[in-house]
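Not sure how to ask, but would you mind making up any protein sequence you like and the tokens describing how it folds?
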Amino acid sequence: MKSILKDFEDVNIIVHPEKHQGSKDLNGIVITALDTMLPRKRIWDSVKGSDNVELFIDPRMGGRVARIYLVNPKNGIEEYEKTLYTDEESAPERCTERTIIYNVLGISSLICKAIEDHFTEPVQGCKEIILDYQTYTLMRS
């Protein structure tokens, strides 16, 4: 993603490809790319209420359905925290449904569009985008 953004838009992004332990101050726009809830909660705990993080993006995928949460860490706390659950409560997808490439690409494009929109109309609270390839439905709250 870093090289694609550089090639197409001449934008430099900072990538942190290490496990977040909560000790590093995060800032700017934070995008999670996780398979489980525990590290997602760990990162969220380090950004909620932060003056340094302007947008928290949490994409989730299960088979042919994606949910993308766009959260202002200062005023979307309660609404976003209602979407969190434990790893034990999650429904595991069949192995063949975990990595459907068109879903991954759809999520990526919606994240890019959300970031672009954020610069003209910053997210207030918590917004949810649902992309359902089974029913060809796209919804945004």
About this structure: The chain is about 30% helix and 25% strand. The chain has a mean pLDDT of 87. The radius of gyration is 15 Å. The longest strand covers residues 53-62.
